[in-house]
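Lecture notes, continued. The same structure-token format from the folding unit now serves as the input rather than the output. Read the line below as a description of shape only.
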């Protein structure tokens, strides 16, 4: 489990810049800590985790005989364990800290973020704490350690970007959540699936539909498209064959105030986008879009497909990510990507020019106030959506739609 830091400023920041750090915290759980056997050398625990685009390994052992009863806590870049030539470079610019937590999450033992130990590509503390003290913090045989990694931000780099704006589920309500798929109180039946599916090249088998139960009043408030479809079925069950039961289950549960599990969202983001777009569940669509952008690697091989998809589904955040890639890799894109299928209209070129202008501002260090430009002109989609949401405006729209509404 890992998290990134959020900086909150109170008052006016000083005119002179000070050292800025981007931090990440990972919780490492050392199961069977009491049975950890002494060792003559620092060894990895098998606790690997990733942050700042690097893989790290937490290292713990009992300290050398010269310091009896003490435990050593260190961290190393996983490249060091493979004796990679660039292992030392992988550690440059980082500082590390460790905190031991008890069952209530209280910090019991901690030392500041300093590179106290610097040997053999290790960073940390040869004498972090007495094992007897750490044993008092064990919870059900497990020692919980917060490993903190921080990276100094280069003065030439832009400040860390705020997390992508993801709207809260507007339908969240405990009473409604309990009514999800409740056959006893439902007045709508929906059968999903049941279409013919290919078993092999010559045979077809009809799959059995999955039945969902809903309430017309809730559907009318949350997804009018689905409500209209269900009302057309009269007393019979509404039939849906273009969405799988699994994806429809996620959509309907969201309508009833539930959240899509993160793993399912990441694995099925595109299918959820398609279903949410079709049935008008805009907040779910934007949530799935953010997950899709976060988990998708854009390259010259898929950039055009992603651009066409973003345009077809009105996915402003995805389109922005694609445009950023094109602006940052314009030479390679021009050489390897065909633009014959590029959607027409001025908005596509406007978005591309916005990405280029944003990149130029980033390189020059200028901001909107300094250059006297449009307040929203080069603002990111996530920020535009956040501002629109704060004003109670619609957030599922193109860059132009969002800016027009905010103005």
């Amino acid at each position: 489990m890992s998290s990134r830091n959020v900086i909150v400023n109170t008052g006016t920041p000083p005119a002179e810049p000070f050292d800025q750090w981007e931090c990440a915290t990972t919780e490492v759980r050392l199961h069977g800590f009491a049975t950890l056997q002494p060792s003559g050398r620092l060894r990895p625990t098998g606790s690997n985790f990733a942050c700042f685009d690097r893989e790290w390994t937490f290292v713990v052992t009992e300290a050398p005989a010269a310091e009896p009863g003490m435990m050593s806590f260190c961290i190393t870049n996983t490249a060091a364990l493979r004796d990679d030539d660039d292992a030392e470079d992988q550690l440059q610019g980082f500082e590390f800290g460790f905190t031991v937590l008890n069952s209530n999450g209280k910090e019991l033992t901690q030392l500041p973020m300093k590179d106290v130990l610097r040997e053999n590509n290790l960073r940390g503390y040869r004498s972090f704490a007495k094992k007897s003290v750490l044993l008092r913090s064990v919870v059900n045989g497990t020692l919980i350690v917060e490993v903190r990694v921080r990276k100094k931000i280069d003065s030439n780099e832009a400040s860390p970007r705020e997390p992508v704006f993801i709207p809260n589920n507007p339908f969240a309500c405990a009473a409604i959540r309990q009514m999800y798929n409740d056959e006893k109180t439902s007045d709508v039946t929906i059968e999903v699936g049941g279409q013919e599916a290919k078993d092999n090249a010559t045979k077809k088998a009809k799959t059995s539909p999955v039945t969902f139960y809903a309430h017309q009043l809730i559907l009318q408030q949350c997804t009018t498209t689905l409500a209209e479809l269900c009302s057309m079925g009269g007393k019979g069950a509404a039939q849906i064959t273009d969405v799988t039961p699994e994806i429809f289950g996620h959509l309907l549960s969201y309508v009833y105030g539930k959240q899509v599990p993160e793993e399912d969202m990441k694995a099925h983001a595109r299918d959820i986008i398609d279903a949410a777009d079709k049935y008008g569940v805009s907040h779910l669509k934007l949530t799935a879009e953010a997950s899709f952008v976060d988990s998708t690697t854009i390259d010259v091989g898929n950039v055009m497909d992603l651009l066409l998809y973003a345009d077809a589904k009105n996915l402003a955040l995805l389109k922005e990510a694609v445009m950023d890639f094109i602006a940052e890799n314009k030479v390679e894109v021009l050489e390897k990507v065909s633009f014959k299928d590029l959607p027409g209209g001025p908005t596509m070129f406007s978005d591309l020019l916005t990405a280029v202008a944003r990149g130029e501002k980033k390189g020059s260090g200028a901001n909107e106030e300094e250059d006297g430009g449009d307040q929203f002109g080069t603002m990111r989609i996530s920020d535009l959506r956040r501002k629109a949401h704060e004003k109670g405006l619609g957030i599922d729209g193109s860059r132009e739609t969002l800016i027009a509404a905010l103005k």
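Point for the exam: The radius of gyration is 27 Å.
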